[in-house]
Write a structure and sequence with these properties.
Rossmann fold; seven-stranded parallel sheet; globular; binds NADP nicotinamide-adenine-dinucleotide phosphate; 15% strand
């Protein structure tokens, strides 16, 4: 079978990296990663070991139109098409309307929401050339449940509507667009934002576990990646505009 060519944003960390690890085990995917900093790319390569050379790690900012265009050219030159796009790059900064600065708000909306719009729009010519193309947006349980960060919740509510809108609009090209909406997953997101130290985040993760009917917070590779892979694969050819809660039962 011809391998699917799939781009994963935020592939150097957390849910993006867990997805890469899972996809590498399926052997049906040619994987490109696009993430912001060199540091996590080096750490991700170290974690993947010998498998690291099976992934094309590229660096850039999804909220920069220039970087998105550069990415388009790179993929066009090498592969000529894209069969899958996982929009996993994202950030959080805790705070409500009283605490959050306008700059923090703009940053979250630019990366989490506008970034998905700009990147998907830029790559659309390549996605149209793909076979049974699938776009998977990583949204969040916070798209429907207020709490933690006002900009994050608002950005993820926007992502769900992007998913529905693009699902409706792009069906004519046989491009599916779906969202995966996790509750808490153990990643670098809160330490990267400076909201938690690693020690405080580890403690927080343990304390959250009893709030989940399934008794724990999520693991990127084991708990989230299989749903992403299902949506990328030809097992979900009649599914579009859908919002998949994967949350250990937290939202019940
Ligand atoms: N963790 C959770 O509890 C949770 C729950 C629900 C939804 N999510 C969503 O899952 C997605 C992945 O988050 P995560 O938890 O895996 O976080 P993470 O471990 O911090 O990984 C985020 C990745 O996105 C990249 N990134 C951030 N801003 C970027 C930008 N402007 N351009 C390109 N890449 C950028 C980061 O780059 P660097 O490697 O350079 O940092 C990193 O590789 C996010 O959309 C998040 O909202 C997470």
């Amino acid at each position: 079978m011809e391998k699917k060519i799939v781009l994963i944003t935020g592939g150097a960390s957390g849910i993006g990296l867990g997805t890469i690890e899972y996809l590498l085990e399926q052997e049906d995917y040619e994987i490109i990663s696009f993430s912001k900093g060199e540091k996590n790319i080096a750490l991700a390569k170290e974690k993947l070991g010998d498998n690291a050379n099976k992934v094309l790690f590229l660096q850039g900012d999804i909220s920069s139109e220039k970087d998105c265009k550069r990415l388009y050219t790179e993929i066009d030159n090498r592969f000529k098409k894209l069969d899958g796009l996982v929009n996993a790059a994202g950030i959080i900064k805790l705070g409500g309307i009283e605490e959050q600065t306008i700059q923090e708000w703009n940053n979250s909306i630019n990366i989490n929401l506008t970034g998905i719009f700009v990147l998907t729009k830029t790559l659309l010519p390549l996605l149209k050339k793909g076979k049974n193309t699938s776009v998977v947006n990583i949204s969040s349980m916070s798209s429907e449940k207020a709490g933690g960060s006002i900009a994050y919740c608002a950005s993820k509510a926007g992502v769900d509507m992007l998913t529905k809108y693009m699902g409706q609009e792009l069906g004519k090209y046989n491009i599916r667009v779906n969202s995966v909406n996790p509750a808490a997953v153990y990643t670098n997101i809160y330490v990267a934002s400076g909201d938690y130290t690693q020690e405080a985040y580890d403690k927080w993760s343990e304390e959250k576990a009893p709030l989940y009917p399934l008794g724990r917070i999520g693991n990127a590779k084991k708990d989230i990646a299989p749903t992403i892979e299902f949506l990328l694969s030809d097992k979900s050819l009649w599914t579009t505009g859908a919002i998949y809660l994967v949350d250990g039962g937290k939202s019940i």
